[in-house]
Amino acid sequence: MMLPTHALAGAALAVPLAALAPEAAPLVLAAGLLGGVLPDMDLYVGHRRTLHFPVYYSTAAVVAVPAALVVGTTASVALAALLIGAAAHCVADVFGGGLELRPWEATADRAVYDHFNGRWIAPRRWIRYDGAPEDLLLSTTLAAGLWGVAGGELRIVVAGALAIAAAYTVVRRVLPSVVEVIVPALPTPVVTSLPARYRTSLRADAAADSETGRATRDGR
Q1: Residue 153: which H helix or E strand, with range?
Q2: SS3 state of residue 8
Q3: Does one domain contain both 190 and 133?
Q4: Arithmetic mean of pLDDT, 107-112
């Protein structure tokens, strides 16, 4: 799923928790939104592995929510919201596409790394790929639900997230082609810092070109 969907989902899941600290509801909703974004901070460093912990985040959330109910402080409620958002993000990625450059081709068998069991979880593809029409529909539904409970500043964030989601959905299918044109022209240090799926695609293209060259030389 795309990042705006994760962000909106994190904020939406924080709504019930905000009732525990109504005076700090904007902070709690913001914490949920931040939790929804947090795992994807590993985009350039082992994406869906370095900061994705579907089991550990979920376990921490199971502990944090009852603790927030008992303690009732703003900090405890915000922490619970953050952990729920992060857990939901990691679990939701299992139901999306894989890590390949064109996930609609369904060629990859890796969705999220499960550190607890030491293995990759395969994608379920209920939402076929990040930026799919059904992904945008989910973002729209979450944004509509949040609109009624969000304050002025958070409404701006919700509207912005939905606008980004819509724009990303429009260009999603052409992005791989753009990447394949731009990336080869970038300096090597920049290329090596890109997510692995971009570098893998370039290696595959280079291998295909090499094979074509050999076939031409051999008269095939």
Answers
A1: helix 152-171
A2: helix
A3: no
A4: 94
Region for residue 132 given its phi and psi (left: phi exceeds 0; alpha: psi -120 to 50; beta: otherwise): beta
Reported as a single tens digit per residue, the pLDDT across 31-73 is 999 999 999 999 988 999 999 999 999 999 999 999 999 998 9
- For 51, phi and psi rounded to 5 degrees? -120, 10
Burial of residue 9 (CB within 10 Å: 0-12, 13-18, 19+) is: buried
Whether residues 48 and 112 share a domain: the answer is yes
162: amino acid identity, one letter: L
Task: Write down which residue in 143, 158, 175 finishes a domain.
Answer: 175
Predicted TM-score (pTM) of this structure: 0.87
* Residue 185 lies in domain: 176-217
Query: Are 74 and 160 in a shared domain?
Result: yes
Residue of 108, 13, 96, 101 lying closest to 52 (CA atoms): 96
Rounded distance, CA 63 to CA 39, Å? 19
Spatial distance between the Cα atoms of 123 and 108, rounded to a whole number of angstroms: 8
Cα–Cα dist 36/160, whole Å: 15
